[in-house]
């Protein structure tokens, strides 16, 4: 009986933390759908996949990640600005590698909705998104 209460408390705490993470990651006009999170064979690393949907004109504010990101455009056109470099615009089927800790932003520059599949290789227990400058 005591074990059941402990397990329930742990699940509640983990679930609450996950919901807080999801709520913090949502910006106006941007929706994140967590698809996968798994341990890797590389010590202290996880792989995380997220679908990010952008309404027309939506902008993800400057941020970084505690690991590498691979962004693959599923729909529309997205403009990425990486840490002082010229912007790059990607269309459906294009991919972009973003090094760990690189401050960047993404903006929907198409005529309709846009979406990306973001794959992250990140440190375990680190926040997935870190607000940038």
TrEMBL record:
SUPFAM superfamilies documented for this protein: RmlC-like cupins
Domain Cupin type-2 residue range list: 51-115
PANTHER family: CUPIN DOMAIN PROTEIN (AFU_ORTHOLOGUE AFUA_3G13620)
InterPro entries reported in the protein's UniProt record: Cupin_2 (IPR013096), RmlC-like_jellyroll (IPR014710), RmlC_Cupin_sf (IPR011051)
Pfam families for the chain: Cupin_2
Record carries keyword Transcription regulation: no
Signal peptide: 1-25
Keywords, sorted A to Z: Signal
Record-given protein name: Cupin domain-containing protein
Keyword presence, Signal: yes
